[in-house]
Amino acid sequence: MSDLSNISTETLQAVTKEMAWQYRVIPKLNSDPLELYAEKSSVDAALKDELEILMGKNVTLVGVEKEVIEYGLSKYYRKGNGQEKVEARKLDTSSNDFVESLIREAKSLDCSDIHMEPYEKRCRVRMRLDGKLVERFVIDNDKYPSYVNKVKIMSNLDIAEKRLPQDGRIFFKTGDKQIDIRVSILPVLHGEKVVMRLLGCDASDIDINLLGFDEAQMKHYHQAYNQLNGIILISGPTGSGKTTTLYATLKELNVLSRNILTIEDPIEYTLEGVNQVQLKENI
Question: Residue 118, preceding bond cis, omega within 30 degrees?
């Protein structure tokens, strides 16, 4: 399907997600000067001029079938869960608010984790989407340490300590939502790796009827969690819905006549009426 099978992150960063969807364009693999795939029916001088003004560089449009653009947009420019606004620039990896923008981007895509990783010649940012890590950005090596320090400051960690692992926590507010972020810093060969785990704080919108069970599965599960004794084991990879299923079940069981105690690591949502204990192995 044209050259859309494996476009590099550096190439993709030439076009913002918002711009890609509005103008329905995909950057061509390793093209210099920049070439953009666009739907054949929309390729004209007006589109070319508008894109050149927005991007501040010369571009060449290559007409392709609509199906090719649909494939590229769904593969490389996944839409978030909010209203998108087109901006005349990409998410700037050199800006001072890159970390904050990164968190907002991850939240809008419903990512569970952000991984910032340094290597000898490049540093990358990956996000976990539907359980799989996807490379989203490439950062200049000389900028990377300042972003690590920014994360450390936001999570109240020691910016001078670069030899030992550190764990922290960020309470980040975006719009009317508050995100609880668990931060892990790990010294590696070429610097420090950062993992930010995005947790929800409000369980009010979790509904057991919206988890994807069919009628028969829901009936069996309902019978199981209403037993007077026993164990229910819920397993699966990161992002598969284990935590959401457990909290949705606790909401169903949470009535005045029941005493509910949880032991969690970490506590991802707060539930009124449930006694939640944070696991601390050392004590």
Answer: no
In angstroms, the CA 245 to CA 76 distance is 29
Angle in degrees, CA 23, 55, 32, rounded to 5: 100
CA dist., res. 254 & res. 191, Å (int): 46
42 exposed, middle or buried (CB, 10 Å; 0-12, 13-18, 19+)? middle
d(CA 174, CA 189): 34
Structure tokens at 95: 């800006």
Which residue shows structure tokens 């990783």?
117
Alpha-carbon distance of 21 to 85, in angstroms, equals 10
pLDDT tens, the chain, 283 aa long: 456 767 777 778 778 777 888 888 888 876 667 888 888 888 888 888 888 877 777 888 888 888 888 888 887 887 655 444 333 334 566 677 889 989 988 888 888 899 999 999 889 999 988 778 888 888 889 999 999 999 999 999 999 999 999 999 898 887 777 888 989 999 999 999 999 998 876 677 788 988 888 999 999 999 999 999 999 999 987 777 888 899 999 999 999 999 999 998 878 888 889 999 988 888 8
Distance separating alpha carbons of residues 147 and 159, to the nearest angstrom: 11
User: Scanning the structure block, which residue is given the tokens 């007077």?
Assistant: 228
Indicate the burial class of 279 (C-beta count within 10 angstroms; 0-12, 13-18, 19 or more): exposed
